[in-house]
Amino acid sequence: MSDNPTITVQQLAERDQQNNVEIIDVRTPMEYREVRAAKAKNIPLDVLDPHSVMKSRNGSANEPLYIICKSGARGAKAQQKFIDAGFANTINIENGTEAWVSAGLPVVRGKKAMSLERQVRIAAGFLVLVGALLGIFVHPYFTGLSAFVGAGLMFAGITDSCAMGMLIVKMPWNQSQDGSCSV
Q1: What is the pTM of this model?
Q2: Closest by Cα among 173, 135, 129 to 29
Q3: Distance between CA 73 and CA 133 in Å, rounded?
Q4: Which H or E run includes 181?
Q5: Could you tell me the mean pLDDT of each successive run of 10 residues in the chain, 183 residues long?
Q6: Most CB contacts within 10 A, which of 14, 90, 123, 124?
Q7: Does 181 qualify as catalytic in the annotation?
Q8: What's the burial of 102, exposed, middle or buried (CB within 10 Å: 0-12/13-18/19+)?
C-alpha cells in the first residue's frame, strides 16, 4: 500500500461513537448491494470524482472522509485520488468490508452477487479454452488468443490493474437497479 493514513475498523467504530463519521464505499454497485457497512455511501472507484464528493459533503468538509472497499486496495487508490486532487483529510479503512463484517459491525445485506474476481476467472478461462480448441481444430494461429489472455493476466497481476475486470464491471448484470451508485 502507501504511507497514507489508515484506520482499523475497531478504531473507526470507537471514533463513530464519539462523533458521526462519513464513509464512502468505492466497490462496484453489485458488491455494495451484496453487503456493506451500514453507514457507507457507494461511489465506485471508476466514477469517483473527489471534487464532487467534497462539494456534496453536508457541512463536514473539514472532518475526515473514510474510504472503504473490499480489502483495502481500491480504498488506497481512491484515497490517492483525493490526495492528488488536494484533499488530504482522507483515511483508508484497513482490510475493508471484509474486516468490517468479521468484526461484527453493523452491515446491510442485500442480494448475493457473483464476485468480479470470479467473473474474470470464468471469462479468462473461457477465452483460453476457446483459443486452444480453435488452435487445435481450426488453425494454429488461434492459440494466440490463449497467449494474449495469459499475457493479460500476468500484466494484471504485476500492475494490480485488470482491463478485463474493468470491462466486466460495466456489463449490465453488474449494474445496480436501485440507484446505489449516486454521488
Answers
A1: 0.73
A2: 173
A3: 36
A4: none
A5: 86 90 93 93 94 83 91 95 95 97 94 85 97 97 97 94 89 67 36
A6: 90
A7: no
A8: exposed
